[in-house]
Design brief:
- This protein is mainly α.
- The chain has a single domain (about 1-334), classed as NCX, central ion-binding region (A middle domain of Talin 1, Up-down Bundle).
- The chain has 14 helices and no strands.
- It has helices at about 1-30, 35-60, 65-100, 110-135, 140-165, 175-180, 190-225, 225-240, 240-250, 255-270, 275-280, 290-310, 315-320, 325-334.
- The protein is globular, with a radius of gyration of 19 Å.
Length: about 325
């Protein structure tokens, strides 16, 4: 029965995410936003909604002691998955599509944009790891709350810098899903219909996240596995599918900046807002498994940041190499 809850929750999450992302991209088109904003903010944050809602529902609305572990696992698992699994999959995708003759192995990126994303991620997630290492008593929770405020401020500053950059949107959007179903005006759907689809998608993500959390807690009891470890492995793989799927399509189309910015933008978001939820709603005391997850994600991101900063480019092998960090964690956790 727990597996059914997980599967049902996942299907609802992905369906809602697809509606939300499609709608939010149309919002970006109406606002004439740049390619970086569409990739890092609208697509990145839009597809990050599932893994954001899972810890939010688990921490603030879940039942039982396992809720905090499920929430923290979802928070920590997303950066690890994005850095050490999603980006390596992009590297493999580039090699695969180049073999098919659809593109070359060269990764054409806006290096300054990607470097900014990784720099913000390393700063914000480094703060999160520092807070976990500090011995904070209950009376000192104000430090966690202050750190949460700093992280939110960092993300707002990041948005301000990103919105100030110019650039053309280099993406051909799919027709709005509701317009395909309800109207014939596919090229220019009404703004109210776009916002309705965004709200519908967001509502489905919330409902699916609740079912997913319930199934996760029950499955951890049946398998006698730590909810934190199970959540760290399963939750991000399930909820990061929208980012990975979108980026894989863009890689095949040669839209490398959109593909990578979708992942790195989600990394920035995941290291700020969801971490803030954990800092405010939990004790944020991580065990060795949680610390290892955060440490490996930071290490992998630092390697990629150094390469883009000093060499100005990536090769698919650089991305694929980060898979070593993910496999290391899986072997360590089990």
């Amino acid at each position: 029965m727990s597996g059914l809850w997980l599967l049902l929750g996942l299907v609802i999450i992905l369906s809602g995410s697809y509606l939300f992302t499609n709608g939010i991209e149309w919002v970006g088109k109406r606002l004439h936003l740049s390619e970086g904003v569409v990739g890092s903010v609208l697509a990145g944050v839009g597809t990050a909604m599932p893994e954001t809602m899972v810890p939010f529902i688990a921490i603030f609305f879940g039942n039982g002691k396992a809720r905090e572990s499920v929430g923290i696992g979802a928070i920590l698992g997303a950066p690890l998955m994005l850095t050490c699994l999603a980006l390596p999959l992009l590297g493999l995708g580039i090699l695969f599509f180049s073999r098919l003759g659809k593109r070359t192995t060269e990764i054409r990126l806006n290096a300054l944009h990607v470097r900014m994303d990784l720099g913000v991620f390393l700063t914000s997630y480094g703060i999160a790891l520092l807070m976990a290492l500090l011995p904070v008593r209950e009376s000192g929770q104000w430090i966690h709350h202050a750190a949460a405020g700093i992280l939110i401020g960092l993300y707002l500053l990041y948005l301000w810098r990103l919105l100030g950059r110019e650039g053309a949107v280099g993406e051909d959007l799919e027709p709005l899903i509701l317009s395909r179903s309800l109207t014939r005006n596919h090229d220019s759907p009404h703004t109210a219909l776009i916002l309705t689809q965004v709200a519908l998608g967001f509502g489905l993500v919330i409902g699916g996240a609740y079912l997913f959390v319930e199934g996760m807690q029950r499955l951890s009891q049946i398998l006698d596995i730590s909810p934190l470890t199970l959540s760290l492995i399963i939750t991000p793989i399930a909820t990061e599918l929208p980012e990975t799927f979108n980026s894989f399509i863009w890689i095949a189309q040669g839209k490398d900046t959109l593909a990578v910015a979708n992942i790195t933008g989600a990394m920035v978001f995941q290291s700020t807002f969801p971490v803030s939820i954990g800092l405010i709603g939990t004790s944020w005391q991580l065990d060795r498994s949680g610390l290892a997850s955060a440490g490996l994600a930071i290490l992998a991101a630092f390697v990629l940041y150094s390469l883009i900063r000093f060499r100005g480019r990536w090769h698919p092998i650089h991305l694929i190499f980060c898979l070593v960090f993910y496999l290391t964690y899986v072997l360590y956790a089990f």
